[in-house]
Amino acid sequence: MTDRGGDSEDIEQQLVAAAPRVYGFLIRLVGRPDVAEDLMQETMLRAFRSLETYLPEGKFHAWVFRIATNLARDWIRSRKRRPVTGLEDDSDALPATLRGDARPEAGLVRSEQAQAVEMAVAQLSDADREVLLMRYYGELPFKEIARATGEPLGTVLARAHRALAKLGDLVSEEEP
Amino acid sequence: MKRCPDKTEWVLYAAEEVSEGRRGDLEAHLEACEACRRDVSALRRGLRALTALARESPVRPEGLEALKRHLRVAAAHRAARPAFAKATADRPRVIAAVWRYRWVAAAAAIVLAAATWTLWPAGQPVRTAQDADLSDAIAEITVAVEILETDQYAGTTPNGSSRLEKGPNLPAAAGDAANGLKTLPADLCRLSTGRPVTGQVNVDGRREPCDPLV
Prior knowledge:
The complex is a heterodimer of chains A (176) and B (214).
Chain A: H1 8-30, H2 33-50, H3 60-81, H4 96-99, H5 112-123, H6 126-137, H7 142-149, H8 153-174
Chain B: H1 7-14, H2 20-32, H3 34-50, H4 61-79, H5 82-99, H6 102-119, H7 129-154, E1 181-184, E2 197-202, E3 211-212
Antiparallel strand pairs in B: 1-2, 2-3
Helix pairs in contact in B: 1-3
């Protein structure tokens, strides 16, 4: 994805090209393929519509991930507010790799190590996971993540430290 | 050994987001601090572990098609609104231009209101020019209709001579013959709307304007 600009057709193409990465980000953030797909579509539409009136600060790329993050946050928040009925099957809330029904063609399963990392990432707190995924999928520097999430840089770095240390420990255990 | 830097700074260091100057200081500290070296090593392993995740996850073809369709619709909407967008963009400039004269406009409005209040005769209902024009027009039409109706009853000839006394259905007209006027009964003097009016008619058949009985 290039920095912002271009006509409608160009922007459409950029957004469609970015869809798999934004979807990969969202599916790991919300844990549900159906929700992730809806949120991805909404992200792209909002990005497209907002381009008429809003000149994003910084990169177009960062801006799209900022929209995706906000939408995912809203969804996670609304899900937490929803009362638990006891009748819901919450197995969909886990990433597909952890439910054992991942489609290999979906690129979610690559190796045992990848699966272990998926599991470790899924077990992080929502806030910690959000920082790591924004860093990896959005390729955003931590300062940009702080701006996008509206959190102080120190808070973002503390979350990143906690999450990366957990992942680092996991890898050291896996390595012979 | 100096005090250890904050752990958050090691995150920036591991992610290569520190300035060159600061990097030198941190590396100097690392050489002497085993605990910080372990910390940085774990962070680097964590960053490396992330790369095991697939960077892209294929979207279902139906989902991708739906996205393209939605974007096309949004693009069509966008293309249909350039005039609106331009008008919206111009609006602040128009408002700014008018806004400059806001005090002049307010003062003029106050002066006008005060002058109207002072000069308007006491007890006179306020009528706008438009109201007056409308009333005049209605009055003219009313008179014209009444004249036509009266002429029909009185049998006035086109050349203006009176046939009032010869009218076949003419009821006895009460009036002041001395001044050459006859007062018509109400049922003779109705407007086309059916509303009765009083009125007088000249002996030659010409009608004076009537006043409604209401």
